[in-house]
Structures are given as C-alpha cells and as structure tokens.
Amino acid sequence: MKGNYTFTIIKPTAVRKQKTGQILADIIAGGFRIVAMKQIRLQEHEAQEFYRVHRDKSFYQQLVDFMTSGPIVVAVLEKENAVEEYRKLIGSTDPDQALMGTIRAKYAESLRHNAVHGSDSDENARLEAKFFFSQREIFDGLEFSSLAWDEKKSKNKAPA
Ligand code: ATP
Ligand code: MG
After folding, report:
1. What CATH number is given to the structural domain containing 147?
2. Which DSSP string corresponds to 121-138?
3. Which among 14, 33, 45, 70 is least buried, having the fewest CB atoms inside 10 angstroms?
4. How far apart are CA 21 and CA 123, in angstroms?
5. Is 75 in contact with 23 (CB distance < 8 Å)?
6. Pocket test for ligand 1, best of 63, 64, 73 (most atoms within 8 A of CB)
7. For the segment 64-111, what is each residue's pLDDT rounded down to a tens digit?
8. What does the alpha-carbon distance between residue 131 and residue 126 come to, in Å, rounded to a whole number?
9. 158 CA → ligand 2 middle, Å
10. 63: Cβ below 6 Å to ligand 1?
C-alpha cells in the first residue's frame, strides 16, 4: 500500500529569494497538509550525511556546498500516495524538463539550484523525516509518528 507521507526541503536559493510562501501555497493548493515544518541551516556534515547516496557523483561537493549555503525549510507533508503525488507536483529534477506549472518549473534556477527536494520512496520519506524532526515536532501526524519513531513497539506488538 502506498504511504500517505512525504518529506520536502525548500532549498537555499528559493528561501533566499523569499519564495517560501508561494511554494507552500502551491503545496497546499496541491492537496497536501503540512504535518511538520521548520527553517534551519544545515551544517556541512549533516548535508554530507543527507546526500550520502550521491557521494560518488561528480556533483556531490557542489550539492553539499549549495545545501549549506543558507537556510532551508524542511517539512513533512500528508496526502494519499504522497511520494508519487509530490514528485508530480514538483516536476523533473532539471527545471528545463519540468512540466509547466510544476514547482521546479516555476521557482528553480537550474538543475543544481532546483528549488525543492521531494522523497523518492515511502522508506526514504520516513528516514528523511526522522533525520530532521524529533517526534515532538510532529504533533499533528499520529499515524506518521507511530510509524516513524515507535519501531520497537510496533514490531513487538502482540497480534490483535
Ligand atoms: P532531490 O533529491 O533534491 O529531490 P531528485 O531526486 O529529483 O532531487 P537526485 O538525483 O536525487 O534528484 O539529485 C539530488 C540533487 O542533486 C538534485 O536536486 C540536484 O540539485 C542535484 N543534482 C542532480 N543531478 C545533478 C547534476 N547532474 N549536476 C548537478 N547537480 C545535480
Ligand atoms: Mg533525490
């Protein structure tokens, strides 16, 4: 079954250009509910860890430099089939390929400075949300909280 949560980052250039409000309005208009959100600045080691999967790529260091270049907004979003629906809403990684009206087409400067991140699987959405948020910061997503932070309890739960 498809999950109901995804995780997003509004990246440094979009935040610097004061696009946060417009991007959030598009997200809400797209039928997503904001379950958790905050503005932070990543430290180098945090950006390295978050983008670990890309550590062997030629653009890895540029990506880390970019993601630490200024504040970002991180959020957990809820909608049915959230991961897929959100990637549709944001459009292709390269804004030149992104469909008209998508967030990346509207707000991204380039492939490297592409405005937002969206999780690519339910498992990554869970891991990424856990990377940035503590359970008490997700005060309005009960199902998400129980899935993300209470693994031992749910694994050991006695059958009903
Ligand atoms: P994101 O993970 O940010 O949502 P994505 O899943 O569409 O984007 P990934 O392949 O995971 O794309 O790449 C992560 C990020 O690395 C992209 O958002 C982009 O900023 C950057 N990136 C990807 N490919 C390149 C590239 N060829 N050159 C420079 N930067 C790139
Ligand atoms: Mg990705």
Report:
1. 3.30.70.141
2. SHHHHHHHHHHH--GGG-
3. 45
4. 28
5. no
6. 63
7. 999 999 999 999 999 999 999 999 999 999 999 999 999 999 999 999
8. 9
9. 36
10. yes
Q: What is the pTM assigned to this prediction?
A: 0.88
Phi, psi angle pair for 127, to nearest 5° = -65, -40
CB-CB contact of 31 with 77 (8 Å) = no
The beta-strand segments (E) located in 3-52 are: 5-10, 33-40
HSE (side-chain half, CA atoms, 13 Å) at 13 = 15
Task: Determine contact, residues 23/11, Cβ cutoff 8 Å.
Answer: no
Compute, in angstroms, the gap from residue 120 CA to the centroid of ligand 2.
Answer: 6
pLDDT digits (tens, 9 = 90+) for 5-15: 999 999 999 99
**Residue 108: CA atoms inside 13 Å, Cβ hemisphere, count?**
25
- Domains: count for the chain: 1
Domain that holds residue 124: 5-156
Confidence band for 2, pLDDT divided at 50, 70 and 90: confident
